[in-house]
Design brief:
There is one protein chain. The chain is α+β, with helices and mostly antiparallel strands and 672 residues long. The chain has four domains: 267 residues, no CATH class; 98 residues, Calcium-transporting ATPase, cytoplasmic transduction domain A (Distorted Sandwich), CATH 2.70.150; 148 residues, HAD superfamily/HAD-like (Rossmann fold); 124 residues, Calcium-transporting ATPase, cytoplasmic domain N (3-Layer(aba) Sandwich). It is built from 25 helices and 22 strands. Strands 10-22-21-20-11-18-19 form a seven-stranded mixed β-sheet, sandwiched between helices. Strands 2-1-3-9-4-7 form a six-stranded antiparallel β-sheet, with no helix packed on it.
């Protein structure tokens, strides 16, 4: 088994009293105990009277009910008794202690009735109580396992074997765990990538949805990076290994998911304390119930029934499940949306955020040049001018040249044929088209050619320069025919993200090391009310502290490397672009994609999670406030009494309601 899959299995082994690893045990014991309960119920005198039938006694028939009940107690009740031991050992009594106390009181009293005259045994109530408890635990653990399946699903993404390419070009099948950095592997169409790596040969579209949340396949060509666990499309790729085993992005993601499932929020700590308090409250109510009923009717089976019912119905099952199930679902939901929760407290704090600081380059912008504006002389349209400029820049490796070509490609423009490409150092480039000499370059090119710009192009260039944009000119046969403004291209989703954050009542601030003009232009275009320009990486932390001193709850969104001090200083640190480096210690939340819309998802996930936690806590505690007096028998004067089995049923019902309410989290649209 590869290392990533082994880690997923190890999580299950370490599960504590939430019983994630015991689902099969409780399922099996439930069915066995249910079958063994049939004779107990059939031969119970109380059941016979209730259903109006009677079995004539025969030799040994009196022992059928107690013998089967004893078997059920030790077979079905033993898991609860065992799990109560660590609670008592740690002096933290909880739900297992309450369940054990309830079934033990019922069992001991029922045994005593066998030797006490005129006493009514309690066996049928005991076995049905154990049956319902087993069923409730089985269903609970099934819900938690399904919600916590993120690690298992991630582990399944990793192939066990890989095709390693030998030095002579032949391939050999090896275990994925044997691959090392620098190896060359062949990934066939439809196969999963066993490692992180760089494409050396081939082209294909790769499905990265399971890692990044990106719904569309991503085109890969030589030089592009691929992530372990993603699925190759229709092309065959040769990939140079850059990370394998527990160093891959997927293994890192799995570690973060595991940490998130194990970390506790403040709400979880509160629920744990409430469960402990409930144990002592239940003991107090049970004691008062025993005394009150004994005084009223004397010590008989009804007193034991009342005490057992109080102990059963007070079991903090729903309270114990209220938060862990929400945590498990939240973790899985976040991972499916490219949100990796490293610290539960960070996610819980995110709901209180009122100011988000966004790094500009690579977050709000693509971090790459592109054409953001064009103007042309009379007789030329913009697409024609852009296509010609891209053709002339075809052989140039300059950042501006790449930006022009990238923009033309995005617009699907057909480039005219050119020849005679020549780079003019420090000035631009030159080429020929149909006998015409065409130049592309900046102000120094105009100086070299001794050209004056037409009024329209000059005005456009002045406005673009005022925004901190770079301007290049397209010149043909000594005439300036177009001016192109280039800048770091704003992501198309940035405007939507800012609008949604504003609708959520969140203020936005932008941090950048760029000039005042560039920062002002981007902020104005996106509707950002506050920005900090010309900020060095080591000074970003000061800007976060500045906003916090104004009483703001601040989330910092950065790359997790240069922004590490600011991420730590912020109330919530969100590292963006963690698809290939998820082990970022400075952030509580990591976004796999560099998509500002995912910040909206984080805040919505935090708010939805908190709502579900509060709803579940209100239900779980409110249920006990109402149920405990009923179990004690406050409505006995009007003929309403809860039996222990009915108490167990109500307790299980409350657990089911909490579980169903938590599952509704899956329906939340995080992008809204």
């Amino acid at each position: 088994m590869n290392h990533a899959a082994h880690e997923a299995k190890h999580v299950e082994h370490r599960a504590h009293v939430s019983h994630i690893g015991h689902e099969a045990l409780f399922r099996r014991r439930f069915w066995v105990c249910l079958l063994l309960s049939v004779p107990v119920l059939v031969f119970s005198e109380a059941i016979q009277r209730f259903l109006g039938y009677r079995f004539e006694p025969f030799p040994g028939s009196i022992w059928i009910t107690p013998i089967f009940a004893i078997i059920i107690f030790f077979y079905g009740g033993l898991p609860f008794l065992r799990m109560a031991v660590p609670e008592l050992h740690n002096r933290q009594p909880g739900m297992m202690t309450l369940i054990s106390l309830a079934i033990t009181v019922s069992f001991v009293y029922s045994l005593a009735t066998l030797f006490l005259p005129a006493s009514v045994p309690f066996f049928w109530e005991l076995v049905t109580l154990i049956d319902i408890m087993l069923l409730g635990h089985w269903l609970e653990m099934r819900s938690v396992r399904q919600a916590s399946g993120a690690l298992d699903e991630l582990a399944k993404l990793m192939p066990d074997t890989a095709e390693r390419i030998r030095s002579d070009g032949s391939t050999e099948e090896v275990q994925a765990s044997q691959l090392r950095e620098g190896d060359l592997v062949l990934v066939r169409p439809g196969a999963s990538f066993p490692v992180d790596g760089r494409v050396e040969e081939g082209e294909s579209d790769v499905n990265e949805a399971m890692i990044t949340g990106e719904s569309r396949p991503v085109a890969k060509a030589p030089g592009d990076m691929v992530i372990a666990g993603t699925i190759n499309g229709s092309g065959s790729l040769r990939v140079r290994v850059t990370a394998a085993g527990d160093k891959t992005a997927l293994a890192g993601i799995m570690r973060l998911v595991e940490q998130a499932q194990q970390s506790k929020s403040r709400t979880q700590i509160l629920a744990d304390r409430a469960a402990g308090w409930l144990f002592y409250i239940a003991l107090g109510v049970a004691t008062i119930t025993a005394v009150a009923w004994s005084v009223a009717i004397g010590l008989d089976v009804q007193v034991v029934e009342r005490v057992a019912t109080v102990l059963v119905i007070a079991c903090p099952h729903a309270l114990g499940l209220a938060i862990p199930l929400v945590v498990a679902i939240t973790t899985a939901l976040g991972a499916n949306n490219g949100i990796l929760i490293r610290d539960r407290l960070a996610l819980e704090m995110a709901r209180e955020i009122d100011t988000v600081i966004l790094d500009k380059t690579g977050t709000l912008t693509k971090g790459e040049f592109g054409v953001v504006g064009i103007t042309t002389a009379d007789g030329w349209d913009k697409d024609r001018a852009l296509a010609l400029a891209a053709a002339v820049e075809g052989d140039s490796e300059h950042t501006i040249a790449k930006g022009i070509r990238r923009t033309a490609e995005a617009r699907n423009l057909e480039l005219p044929p050119v020849s005679g490409f020549e780079a003019l150092k420090g000035r631009g480039v030159r080429a020929k088209r149909n006998g015409h000499i065409v130049y592309v370059g900046g102000p120094r090119l105009l100086e070299m050619l001794n050209l004056d710009l037409p009024e329209g192009l000059a005005r456009f260039a002045a406005e673009a320069s005022g925004k901190g944009q770079s301007v290049v000119y397209l010149i043909e046969d000594g005439q300036a025919i177009a001016a192109l403004a280039l800048a770091d291209v704003i992501r198309p989703e940035s405007r939507e993200a800012i609008d949604k954050l504003h609708k959520m009542g969140v203020e936005i601030a932008m941090l950048t090391g760029d000039s005042e003009a560039v920062a002002r232009a981007v902020a104005q275009e996106l509707g950002i009310e506050q920005y900090f320009a010309e900020v060095l990486p080591e000074h970003k932390e000061q800007k976060v502290a500045q906003l916090q001193q104004q009483g703001k709850r601040v989330a910092m969104v950065g790359d997790g490397v240069n922004d590490a001090p600011a991420l730590v200083r912020a109330d919530v640190g969100i590292a963006i672009g963690g698809g290939t480096d998820v082990a970022i210690e400075s952030a509580g939340i990591i976004l796999v994609k560099s998509n500002p819309l995912d910040v909206v998802k984080v805040l919505n996930l935090s708010r939805a999670t908190y709502r579900k936690m509060v709803q579940n806590l209100i239900w779980a505690t409110g249920y006990n406030i109402v149920a405990l007096p009923l179990a004690a028998g406050v409505l006995a004067p009007v003929g309403i009494l809860f039996s222990p089995a009915l108490g167990a049923l109500f307790m299980s019902l409350s657990t089911v309601i909490v579980a169903l309410n938590a599952q509704l989290l899956r329906r939340v649209d995080l992008a809204m």
